[in-house]
């Protein structure tokens, strides 16, 4: 019996657990700091699954669990992965995550190799399936003597159009705070040979309309996602003059993120004001903006006009959204929050939750401009997947499926010996991504590819 330890019981764990339980030779321990959620996941197949309480900061308890298993799948926040990685190295147990490799995690590369274990990262949807789709085309171009001159990759996790029924056009299918942190992160990318840098908190100020033919019938806006240039080496994009990885949202999302930023609600600084009992939103917003309660609307309007000029449509959109969220009036700010971003996050999590019967939508679109000794092609690779309706027995969201299943498939590939690489890595090498593409195809997950001559 192969023993798999799953850390975390959040948004994407359902599909992962269901996939693992298809094989009777696998047993799962689902460890979470919310035991009830872990028990619900374990009930998917009670003969194979056990739920346990775990506080990851309790390192002796975590080390004991790791020691008792053959591999660890970490679905907890990325900031905690270094703790897990250190203990996996100590106990000589393989580890798989869907999160980005951070500099701190990269430091475990040599220790992991010395312990003869894999610390396999970035194998979910984005990052994950995006790597597989990109590298299969890039390597094909390079293997046939071509050059990749431009690479633009855009991804989105959204509600389906009919359920994008709020001012942000958005609902949470993964960590709410993760969405906000991504929105305020700095970004940089390569455009026509020039490095373009966007400072933290300003990414959505430059949201641009996506081409109408990218996903027929969908109007989308896009922004750069963190550091695109870091993928020049792992993606072998040595000849590319343009490298951009970005995020897409329906119109309205960027408007509201800019609004929150101008109201100083995305701050991660500790805020004493939040410790006041019965604090009203209009009081808190005024405090964050440095003005009187009665002046908030005019001050905010003035700030937004500096961003958008006299764009009355955007201004109406912004204030209508704030009214819908009820953060300009005398409603009470959620208690026990330490940072403004956490207070805002609590409101958004309640207001932007999926209701029963609603579905999510995942989109991924790669565009490559390639050159074969003067003959140019435009190649595309994309994924369009909608989830099951929320609230149905056995339903799986698109986000859970496209994060959980690739992560589970990668875990089994390590256990089966199909992937033998050691150290800290992502799926950008043939020895890693080719076995995964074949296995994912068997689950019904694959890319739609197209080529046209230019």
From TrEMBL:
Record-level GO cellular component terms: cytoplasm
Protein name (record): Saccharopine dehydrogenase
Domain of life: Eukaryota
Positions of the Saccharopine dehydrogenase-like C-terminal domain: 124-445
Annotated ranges, domain Saccharopine dehydrogenase NADP binding: 4-117
InterPro entries documented for this protein: AASS (IPR051168), NAD(P)-bd_dom_sf (IPR036291), Sacchrp_dh-like_C (IPR032095), Sacchrp_dh_NADP-bd (IPR005097)
Keywords on record: NADP, Oxidoreductase
Example GO molecular function: saccharopine dehydrogenase activity
Membrane-traversing stretches: none
Keyword Disulfide bond listed: no
Pfam families noted in UniProt: Sacchrp_dh_C, Sacchrp_dh_NADP
Keyword NADP carried by entry: yes
Entry's Gene Ontology BP terms: lysine biosynthetic process via aminoadipic acid
SUPFAM superfamilies linked to this entry: Glyceraldehyde-3-phosphate dehydrogenase-like, C-terminal domain (SSF55347), NAD(P)-binding Rossmann-fold domains (SSF51735)
């Amino acid at each position: 019996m192969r023993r798999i330890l799953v850390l975390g019981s959040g948004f994407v764990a359902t599909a992962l657990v269901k996939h693992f339980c298809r094989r009777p030779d696998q047993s799962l321990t689902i460890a979470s700091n919310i035991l009830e959620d872990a028990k619900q996941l374990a009930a998917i197949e009670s003969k194979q699954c056990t739920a346990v309480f775990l506080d990851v900061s309790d390192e002796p308890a975590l080390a004991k669990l790791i020691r008792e298993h053959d591999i660890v799948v970490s679905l907890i926040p990325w900031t905690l992965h270094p703790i897990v990685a250190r203990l996996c190295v100590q106990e000589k147990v393989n580890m798989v995550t869907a999160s980005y490799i951070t500099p701190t995690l990269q430091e475990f590369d040599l220790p992991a190799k010395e312990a003869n274990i894999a610390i396999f990262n970035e194998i979910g949807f984005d990052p994950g399936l995006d790597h597989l789709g990109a590298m299969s085309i890039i390597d094909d171009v390079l293997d046939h003597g071509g050059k990749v001159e431009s690479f633009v990759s855009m991804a989105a996790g959204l509600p389906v159009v009919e359920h994008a029924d709020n001012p942000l056009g958005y609902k949470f299918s993964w960590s709410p705070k993760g969405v906000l942190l991504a929105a305020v992160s700095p970004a940089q990318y390569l455009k026509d040979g020039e490095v373009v840098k966007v400072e933290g908190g300003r990414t959505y100020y430059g949201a641009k309309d996506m081409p109408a033919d990218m996903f027929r019938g969908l109007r989308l806006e896009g922004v750069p996602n963190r550091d695109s240039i870091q993928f020049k080496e792992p993606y072998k994009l040595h000849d590319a003059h343009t490298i951009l990885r970005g995020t897409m949202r329906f119109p309205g999302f960027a408007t509201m993120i800019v609004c929150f930023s101008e109201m100083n609600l995305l701050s991660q600084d500790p805020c004493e004001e939040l410790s006041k009992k019965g604090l009203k939103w209009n009081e808190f917003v005024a405090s964050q903006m440095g003005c009187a309660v009665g002046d908030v609307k005019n001050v905010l309007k003035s700030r937004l006009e500096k961003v958008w000029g006299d764009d009355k449509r955007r201004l109406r959109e912004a204030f209508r959204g704030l009214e819908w969220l009820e953060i300009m009036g005398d409603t009470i700010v959620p208690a026990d929050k330490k940072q403004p971003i956490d207070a805002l996050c609590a409101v958004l999590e309640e207001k932007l939750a999926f209701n029963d019967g609603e579905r999510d939508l995942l989109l991924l679109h790669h565009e490559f401009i390639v050159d074969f000794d003067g003959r140019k092609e435009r190649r595309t690779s994309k994924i369009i997947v909608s989830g099951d309706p929320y609230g149905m027995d056995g339903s799986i969201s698109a986000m859970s499926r496209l994060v959980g299943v690739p992560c589970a498939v990668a875990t089994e590939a390590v256990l089966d010996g199909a992937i033998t690489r050691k150290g800290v890595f992502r799926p950008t090498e043939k020895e890693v991504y080719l076995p995964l593409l074949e296995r994912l195809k068997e689950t019904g997950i694959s890319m739609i590819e197209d080529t046209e001559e230019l």
